[in-house]
Structures are given as C-alpha cells and as structure tokens.
Amino acid sequence: MKILVINSGSSSLKFQLYNMDNMHVLAVGLIEQIGESKSRLKLDLPPTQTEQTITAQRKVGDHETAITIMFDLLKEHHCLDDVNELAGIGHRVVHGGESFSKSVLIDDHVCKIIKALSPLAPLHNPANLIGIRVIQKKAPKTPQVAVFDTAFHQTIPPKGYTYGLPQQLYDENRIRRYGFHGTSYSYVSKQAALHLGKDIGHTKLIVLHLGNGTSATAILNGNSIDTSMGMTPLEGLLMGTRCGDIDAGIIFYLARETGRAIQDIDDLLNKQSGLKGICGENDMRTIIAKAQTGDSTARLALDVFCYRIKKYIGSYLAALNGADALVFTGGIGENANIVRELSCHNMNSLGIELDPQKNNNQGTQRHIREIQTTGSNLKILVIPTNEELEIATQVLEHIQE
Asked: Could you say which of 149, 226, 295, 324 is catalytic?
C-alpha cells in the first residue's frame, strides 16, 4: 500500500512516498525555486536502487508543473506505476485554527476553511491549498488527507491559549495561542511513551523541537497543555531568524523612533532577528564552530538560545508538576550536543542531570538515545522526529476507517 506525503510551500514542493506495508520510504523528493528562471530538482531513492540521488535543474513555472514533474520522476524511477496506485495522499497544512483538532479527509468544505484561515498563515496556507487543488486534478479518485501543524495543540486549555487582550479580539478575530510543529510533537510523544514503556495516557513530557524554527511543548497524558509558539510562529524560543519572546512595546518604539513601516518591522522580527540578528548567522552548525574558535557574538547567540530553552523547561516542569522525560528533537535537538549540554546545565535541583559522555556519543543510526546520568530523576531523550511518517500514518488511519 503506497501513500504519498506532500508539503507544498510558496516556492517549493517536498514529497515522500511510502510503502506502508513495511513502513519503507520509496522516494524522497524536493523541487525548489518554483517560478524562478532555474528550479532545482532532487530525488533520493533507497539504497536498493541503482541510482541513489538524482539532481537536475530546469525551469518549473508553477506548482502544477512541479507536481507533474514529481509524478514523472516517480514513474521514471519505478517508484510508482500510475497515480491510481496510491492508496492515499497526505498534505501538510500549517494552520487549522480552531476548526481542526485532528487530521481530516479533504473535501470542498475543508478547502474553504483552509482558505478562510489564510490570514493566520499568509505565507503557508495559500501554498498548501495550491498543492491540494493541483493534486485533486491529478488524482481525483485518491483519498486526500490534510494534517495540520496546529491540530495537536487544540487540547491547550483556555488559561494556556488566552492572551491578556480585550476578549472582543478573541471573539471576533480569534486571536489566541495556536502553536505549531504539532505533527512532530504527535510523533515524538508517542515514540517517547513507547521507549519509556508507558501508556501515553499516563505520561508527562517536555518536548523541545529545535531546528531553524524552534518551539517547546508541555504534554500531559498525550495532550498538549502549553506550547511556546503563539498565534504565529514568531513567539517563544529564539530561532534562526525569528526573535521569539520580546517586549511588544519594542514594535511601537521602532515605529516611532526609526520611522520603520509595519511591514519592515514584520520583516525585521521574522527574517532578520533571532540567531541571525545577534551574530549574523542562522545555521547553528556555523554558530557552534565560530563560538568554539572564540567568536564572542556567536557565543552570545548560542548562550541566549540555550538560556531561553532552559527557562521554558523550568516553566513547563511547573505546569506539569514534574515530568517523566525531557525530549530533544529536530535538526539542532538531535545533532547539537553543546545545545543539549547548555540547556540542561545546572538543573540538578530540578531533577535534570545530563551525562556528558552519553550526550557526546552521537552514534551512527537514527535511534532513540538516553543521555541522563544514572541519578537523574528525569529521563533525557534524543528522539529523531519523522513528520512525514506521522502524516502517512494518519492518512492510513483515515483510509482504513
């Protein structure tokens, strides 16, 4: 049984094809710079194939062309004989607002809601919807499922999602905390419970999804009760180019004292801040390398990044009244041992003790690792996330109902 997972961005198309009979990945692809004079194509095939990576450059004018190329590549390399061979197709959709607390089979009504929610995610939902519409034309008989980044966080109680603003703004404009990275949290929390040998309905987890976009979530009995990102992905932890938590008064100060337009401030906070704003770099690998050679601004960026994480860990320990495990995931969470070390430093009074040797032993396989000392009250886990597999699994659940 084959399931295709699609992530349609504003100028890119990411896709993965799964054989769900054995949970094997048949192909992983990326088409980027859609609409530009030269677009880049990449298709990774499993080691059993003769060619493992195929790359090319060509003009891809729009998403319909990109999706046509995707299907052509999958057929050419014997991953898919025909589009009707697909049992289902899963679409990553960024914002589901309050309308979706779980994944749903896509129909016209769902598409209308996704479009109506576009003001909450203007860079993402319209692009996600384009991918859905094009795929509907290419594979009209194949069940399609929308999996929302925000859905996992719909269990957050009102005291966790309500801002200190006039209630009218919630009633009329639905201004509240929504949270993101929900597909990753859904996958990782289940993997953590399995590793701990516990029913997910009886677990307390603090999960840190650390990548270019970073967030933290407190998960009680499998449900999100608080998360660091807010109405938009701008709030919370320091990120690659996003500022995270700041004094909202800074926005008015900048407008008043520098004459910046609101759009310029939006760009500043989302694209020019965070790690990049502090040290000029947003790739954590580069920042760590520079910090280790004595670059003071790189070290400051690293310290601020980890200190913010540490504060969220403490606040979520309070919200959960303790935890079974602290989990690191995402590209930085899985690979940057110094980030894990600094984020857990000097937290033994809270029951968190990281073992430096275990932390530094990266291993060679993508597997769950424990990196706490024998005396640590909390397990400290490194769990590779797999959002695409989580989407495919949710698609499978729908088509088997």
From this structure: 149
